[in-house]
Amino acid sequence: MTAFVVRRLFRLVVVCVGVSLVTFAILHASGDPVSLIMPEAPEADRAVLRQALGLHDPLIVQFARFVGRAAGGDFGNSFFHRTPAFGLVMERMPTTLTLTLLSMALAIVVALPVGIYGAVRRGRAVDQVATGAVFLGQSMPVFWTGIMLILLFSVQWRLLPVSGWDSWTSVVLPTLTLGAFTAPLLLRIVRSSMLEVIGLDYVRTARAKGVAEWLVIGRHALKNAALPLVTVTGLQFGLLLGGAVITETVFAIPGVGRLIVGAIRQLDFPVVQAGVFMLAMIVVSVNFTVDVLYVYLNPRIRLR
Amino acid sequence: MRHGSLPLLAVLLLLALAPSADAQPKDTLTIALVAHAPTLDPHMHFERVGILVNINMFDSLLHRSAKLAYEPALATSWKAINETTWEFKLRKGVRFHNGDTLTAEDVKFSFDRVLEPGKTTKKSPQYGNVRAIKEVRIVDPDTIHVVTDKPFPLLLERLVFFPIVPKKHVEKVGDDAFGASAPIGTGPWKFVEWKRDQYIRLDAHDGYWRGKPPFKHLIVRAIPEIATEVAELKTGGVDLMRNVPADLVPELKTGPQTYVSSTPILRVHQIELDMRSAPFDKKLVRQAANYAIDKQAIIQKLMGGLGQQVATVVQPPAFGFDAEVKPYPYDPPKARELLARAGYPNGVDVTLHSASVEFRPLFEAMAQMLTEVGIRVNTRMWDPGPAWNKFFQSEGKATNGIYFNWGNYSVFDADAVLHPLFHTEPGGWIGKWYTRVEGLDKLIDEGRSTLNQPQRKRTYSQIQRVIHEEAPAIFLFTQYDTLGIAKRVEYAARGDEWLWLFDAKPRR
Fold first, then answer.
1. Residues B301-333: pLDDT tens digits?
2. How many domains does chain A have?
3. What angle do CA B92, B98, B99 make, to 5 degrees?
4. Structural domain that includes position A196
5. Residues 116-135 of B with CB under 8 A from A
6. Cβ neighbours, 10 Å, residue A117
């Protein structure tokens, strides 16, 4: 087990370096931040600033310096905010994580019971409505869902604030939006793996022994049906963080996604690097956790 | 079913508990901007959204009235003593938010922190605006002299936004803290709290020299999505928003709680043509392109009527505008004829670029109109992000023209549009790549090197006739500023796109 964890941790490091390399390369291929910072300055002034920001060195030197510092949590100062980029990102991280985790929780709370019920009572009304909802949910882009929810709940019914992040009421719509983005896929996974499992011999055996139906489903079947759900939940987490970028923009939430989008527009290299790096770290850590969890849930999986 | 109904129940419960979303206190004014500037220090950024906040916290030497005339602010009077020296008399007894009295030292300090005499790199991105100033001298406690290196006709324009900051305070807290958590000015509202990407909270400055502002609290929210801003406005979450898109204007106009205020602004649209290469190296082709576009149709059909046709790029409210120069009429046969005479009887293929995403329909309509007369346009629409910047910085190669708009940085003077667009000096903007009009550089230089306004006016008339004839761009229209406002607030859009909220009043 220890060897497995160590190997996975090593892979985690490799992924992080890879992510920073790609981010770094794309950013530096995308233009000159100095001409955005001082649009009217003569070239001589720009050269001085380029020097000050360390943008005059060869790319490989810049990258080496970046990795060296990043290892110590120092991503440099934001070109625009003039404060440490890492601080700017971490200041907003709790907001993004809250939004993502709440949406994930909502998606699971909806997907699990509805998916199970749909599988058990296959083809009945609830199942058909759920399948329709899945279809709808998967075809709606996040920003559209968000704006429609605003129109309904805030403009039409005046129940919730349109945007912001100051009270728990303002958390509801973004969570619904992002939850609606994730729930359909989870629901489908739960339903199909449940369908698969309840047809298996051991479930029939359990029923034949006279075990109560809710126990058959809830204890015996669910355990095996939950495996794909765990995997997909882990994978979905990365997608959710991507969706959070859009949700944060629509609902004016002060999160990491919105910070990164703004920083990309301004070619604020340190902030983009710090932001992407931290988000990548989270995705990789979640997947790592899922991998480890898997071993507990499914003893058949061999550790390599 | 037992399981399925639980979350639904929870949501319903949440909704039942939620307080009603609207209902703002009467003495609070809330406005929405798409973003906050990175700092509240008025000298250390160059962003419209920052300026709009700064002007309500800081005063400059001069102010511009709603009718766009100069008004005394921290300076009570001013005059040019000679071609390069201006004298300003300072207002007495003005108090900063912290109670300190404004002195000539503060004024000199404010200039020096942007000019940074003797330094090669300047901290302030606004340096370029005032680089013509050589020195600021204190003559006596109520008088300062501003000395420029050569005659600088735009000085007063630049001083309308040149906020004065308190020397003692800035030196005590330092530049960074001043911009992040301790901005202090002499303006109508003082700083209370800033939650980045959420809101800036300001309170009325009781000792304000103009008197108390009508709203006690001012909140500036950052809402990046326009559709969200509109929803906030309709539900009373904000009282004022900028840049209402043309298709949403009717909805806000007829809404029970909202109205729209719009006014022509300096922002002028054009397709600047690359005169270095075929086909736009030929004057006749450039003129043909100007005849090919039905500007009125675009204004009426695509801008909701909120636009004004212009003969060149000089905007009607800008100093130097000459109404005698008339816009090219819409005349497709004439365009075809000119094109044939230029040697393109079968038409010609060109590529035009743009990053003005919000005006994409206009761009495509104009491309279609050009194509109809034989200038077959391949349009390339860019996201206004890094890729566009790189393309633009690499001299806009592989292009025949760029569609964009220019807002003069709110400077009401022909120079502020002519120089960046058409002057070819290396430090200039787009003109250095595209424009090749014999003698135009010299005329533009002439206009900016004297304080003699009648003479400048004559120079600009001449320039407008020259560029109208030479057509270094397809001349189009100016745009309107369109504000969405809650009915509980009385305010009107200004020609300089400022939000001078001291003029906003509660309506009973």
1. 999 899 999 999 999 999 999 999 999 999 999
2. 1
3. 40
4. 85-303
5. 120-122, 125, 127-129
6. 22
